[in-house]
Structures are given as structure tokens and as C-alpha cells.
Amino acid sequence: KVTIKGIERELICPACKELFTHPLILPCQHNVCHKCVKEILFAFEDSLADGGSESSNQSSPRIKVSSSSMDRIDRISRSGRRHNSLTPRSTLFPCPGCQRDIDLGERGINGLFRNFTLETIVERYRQAARAAIAIMCDFCKPPPQESTKSCMDCSASYCNECFKIHHPWGTVKAQHEYVGPTTNFRPKILMCPEHEMERVNMYCEICRRPVCHLCKLGGRHANHRVTTMSTAYKTLKEKLSKDIEYLISKDSQVKAHITQLDLLLKEIECNSERAKEEASQSFEKLSHVLEEKKSAALRAIEASKNLRLEKLQTQAEEYQGLLENNGLVGYAQEVLKETDPSCFVQTAKQLHVRIQKATESLKSFRPAAETTFEDFVVDIAKQEEILGDLSFLSNGLGIPEINEEQSRMYDKALISWECPGKTDSADIYVLEYHKLNREEESVTWQEIEVCSKSTVIPDLDDDSSYAFRVRGYKGSICSPWSREVVLRTPPAPVFRFLFDDKCGYNSEHLLLNPRRTSVESMAGFPLLLGSERMQVGCYTTLDYIIGDTGIAKGKHFWAFHVEAYSYLVKVGVISGNKIQKLFHNTHDVTSPRYEQDSGHDSGSEDAFSDSSQPFTLVTLGMKKFFIPTTPAAPKDPASRILPLPSCLGICLDCDKGKVGFYDAGCMKCLYECEVDCSGIMYPAFALLGGAAIHLEEAVTAKYGEYHDDI
Fold this sequence. Notes:
Blueprint: E1 23-25, E2 31-33, H1 34-49, H2 67-79, E3 81-83, E4 92-94, E5 101-103, E6 113-114, H3 116-129, E7 149-151, E8 156-158, H4 160-166, E9 178-179, E10 202-204, E11 209-211, H5 213-218, E12 226-228, H6 229-249, H7 251-320, H8 327-335, H9 341-363, H10 381-388, E13 401-402, E14 408-409, E15 413-418, E16 428-435, E17 446-450, E18 454-457, E19 465-474, E20 477-478, E21 485-488, E22 510-512, E23 518-521, H11 525-532, E24 543-546, E25 549-551, E26 555-562, E27 568-575, H12 579-584, E28 615-621, E29 624-626, E30 641-643, E31 648-653, E32 658-663, E33 668-674, E34 681-688, E35 691-695
Antiparallel strand pairs: 1-2, 1-6, 3-25, 4-5, 7-8, 7-9, 10-11, 10-12, 13-15, 14-15, 15-18, 16-17, 16-19, 19-20, 19-21, 22-23, 23-35, 24-34, 26-31, 26-35, 27-28, 27-34, 28-29, 29-30, 31-32, 32-33
Helix pairs in contact: 1-2, 8-9
């Protein structure tokens, strides 16, 4: 028997932090209240309608959408992305359990199953928690009586009298299923959310969810591996039972671990108090030194003040004596009254010297002391920096180093670091970063605590440089900061798409991977046979492939890798109204005049008289990047050939009608030109001979997943 009060931790919704109410199962296998799912989706829709304003976040008192999610919504609302007819619409839902954006499919919330098992367990928990509170009859006249049973077919509770009235003998209702008093009414048959009239009778092993026969015949699960519901039930129940039996058999081991953890908790409490006391003593010593320095500085300032006041006071008294009938002047006036020459001369000689000094001081007045105390300003800049880095003794803990090759900036920032080989690794790392801004005088670092040696940072500003540094902690020990590394974000929001496997896709010459993120040209035996039949000219042509998502407005960036062995690859953008012409009018590659920006010097400069084209393609190959031949391009062919970056990026600005080609490693623009963006623009690629292109994958954090072995 399981104590129902011991599992309340599993019965709390991650969104509202309350007991589940009509929980729904998300594709990531987390459960969320039906009401919470709707409120989160409504908050997202309101944010999109209001342009991502934070005021729309106040609509629900239960749910709070994070600021990072609001920033992501704001960028999506301004992106202007459109899917073509081959791409179905989908609904993204930010799961509060795993913090990932979950695709709910075309049906959205209507395609989710209700977790009746979890709902039943929650109801048992509620009943155990409120055993003294009775469930009242739904049909009694006031005052209602306590119910004695609940009808699962009517979804209502009854007292004995009302049950007899509403379920008379000899009627269909008399056959209804009834149970003890409950507020949890679940259907007898689980129906398919996509085909509401069909019951689920199969289990999809790929999607790990129940499906009906229509889902298998023509729905999303047509090509998936399915099994019968009874087989899935038996297999899952056997696996779960075995796992539970194993855990129960290790009960003594679990208790031993709990005892050990309790001892460790007490030891941590004791050691932390000791560490606090030692740290307090260290800071008291430092504080005592500062107090002594403070007292000495204050005493010096006070002594200087008194000396200056004394000098100025004496000078003021001397000048006070220069006034008529006062001081020195008054005394001199009295001496002038002396009529005896010998007595006058005896006194006037010394007095005359004093009068001359007073006259000279009056002509060149200068205070006897300065009023400023600039000499007593304490310079603490260096000490402040040292105190800012004040930490626990490293004691052999190595300084981590950020690995710039493994770190990358795309839709998010992935920062990875390493520790010196023979040094102890830290228990936890603190990563700090800030945006480089020349206008800001002071730097404010943002801090993230990480338990691993890499982390993902979302919601960084586009077209900006950021500085990163990391340090490690092991218990109370701290390492110094690593060397600062500066990385730059893409010039525009990242545009996500896949290779289109339907529109113009040549399956004989091109090979797509199952995820449609890589394409490879197969220059094999069929191409040689076709070329052998041609006696004049060249048979080989470019094989084109486009992205499955178009761009109508805004500024967007995407990146990809071109294999080093690739002979000829063209990359760029093309307007939607030129796609059919592109696929049906392929040209001979031996005539560069057909490719207006092929990168080869054909001697035809008039091809560029129209500066704004509905498409732009740049040539890559043999580990080189060819700047197209334009009037503004260098005349020397060698200066138009650049080394091919390991990762190439394209930035399309529909509003300004420009497309740029970037080294995605350092976000440096290699070439930019104008393009006609009056139609919907699509990423375009072309391959010839042996070549391969891999789309840059989005930066995602690694999450532990539960894998089903059915």
C-alpha cells in the first residue's frame, strides 16, 4: 500500500504550483493543467497581438510568462515568416516542466490527451486530505444530503433517494456504472483527440502516445511503428512493475543512502558554521586594518584643518588691525599725536617698519592657508579592484579556459570551457558576461551558475559583441577568473528552415538526410552515362534545392557548412515567382554568362546593368569563396578569391533589399549586394559534382530524456 500523502510532490502542476486539475499530457511527457495550458497560450497570443508588450502578461494571476519568453515572442511577431503550402501550421508551447518549446501540431491543445490516471490519483489525494469533508448530492433540494454514490455515466453524485429517482429499475439508466462518492469522472472509453468519433486502440512507438486506426491509415502516424493497445499495456506494465520491484528490493540500500545523506547534511551544517566563523574572523581583521587606516586619515585631516584655521585666524586678526581706530592703525594714529621729537622718533622707527609690511601685504593679498583638501583624497581604485576579486584560497583549483572552437553564437550562445589537465575540477562554475558598449562607462556583469562545463545563454541582442569569463568553485574554494573571450551575435534573428524535398527536388542527383538538414550531390554512374551520350558541349548541370520556408519581410540570418571536398556550390536567395523558371531552365555550367554572379570572369560586365535582381547566388568551391564580378569588385581575379570559412552565413534584409554573405565564425561580412525582395524570398542552394551542405543546427541545452524501449 502506498501512503497517498507521501506523493504530493508528483501531483503539483509546474505552472500554477497547485494540485493538477484536468491534467493534459504534453508531447514531452510532462503534465500541465488544462486551464494552465490555455492561459499560457492565451498570454502568448495576446503578446503577439500587442507586439510583445509586457502589459499583456498581467492577464492571468495564475500564470507568469518570463521576460525571456516575452522577448522571444516579440521577435517572432516582427519576423514576418511564412510557411509555403508544403509546411503545415503548428503551435509552439513553452513547457514549464522542461523549459523547452514543444510543438503541439496543427490541432494545438485539442490534440492533447487528458491524463485520467493522474487525475484519479489526485482525487484520491484530495479525499485523503479532506476525509472529514463529505461530497454532497447534486440533485437534492436545499439543504443537500450527503451523497452515497456517484454515477460514472451521468458524471454526478447522488444520495440514496435521488439515485433511485434518477435511475429507476427497468430503464437504461439502471445499467449505469456507479462507484463511491467522487468528484473525478472519467470516460469509459478513451477517444482520439484528432478523430473524436474513434476510440484509441493502438500505441505509436515513435511518438509514444495512443492512436486510433485513422491516425495510422492516413494521419501523422502513417509511417510510424505501432503496436496494439493490449501489447503496449502489457509491455509497459511489466517494465514498470519490474522497475518498481527492483526499487522495493533495494529498500535497505535506499535507507542506508538516506542515513548517509542525513549525516552529510549535519556535517555540512557544522562545516559551514566553522567556515563562516573563519571567514568572519578574516573580514574582522581586514576591517580592523581599515578602521586603523580610517582613524589615521581622519586624524591627519583634523590636524591639517586646525593648522589652517589657526593661520587664517591670525591673518584675519592682522588685517583687522589695519582698520581705522583699530589695531595697528589705531596705535599708529595715537603715536602721531606725540609732539616730542625724540620720543616720537624712538617709537615711530619700529612702527614704520610694521606699517610698510602691512602695506605690502595689502597690495599682494594671499590667504595664509588653502581651503581645499585635495592632498587628503584617498585613492582606493586599486584596493577596490583587489577587494572585488577577494575570494577563498584556490588551493590548487585550476583556472578554467573558455574553448572558442566549441563555443558558438547562433540563435543562442553556447559557451564551453575546459580546465587544466591535472588540476582539480570545480563542483560549480560561475559564468559572467556583458555586452560591449562604448557609451557605457561602468560595466555590469550578468551571472549564471552552471554545474557542467558548458551552458546556453538565450535572448542576446542581435549584431552585438559580448565578453565572457568563467571561474570555478569547489566547496569554499574559488579559482581566479578566466581570460575574457569576446564573441559576436548574428546580424539578425536566426531564420529556421529545412531543405524542401518536394519543390523541384531531384532525387536522382541529390541525397537528403531524414531530418532534411543536409544535402549531398551524387555525381556517380548515371551522370557519366548521360555525359557519354553527349558528343558536343557539356552535359553537367547544377542541381538546385530551396528551403521549405519563405520570408516576406524583416531581417533574417541563417548559417550552414560546406564540405571541404565540394567542387562547386552556389548559395543565396531567390524570389518565389522565379522558382519554377529556376528548376525548368537549368543552364550549361560551361557558359558563365547564364549565371549572372557565378564568380567566374566571363568578360561580360553588361550582365550587371540591373543592380537589383530577384535572386542572388554566390559561388563556392575547392575551399574558396568567390566574390562575384561586379563593376565595384576588384579587377584583379586573385583579390576576389577568399578562403572558404568553416561556417558561412547569409543575412537577408527584405526591408532594405540587401543580402550579405558572412563568415559565421566571427560574423564578418564578406560580400553584400542588392536584391529585389518584392516577392516571398527563399534560401537557395545549387550543387555540382561531389558536394555537400549541412544547415547549422539551433543551439539547444541538453536535457535528459526518458526513452521507451517498446
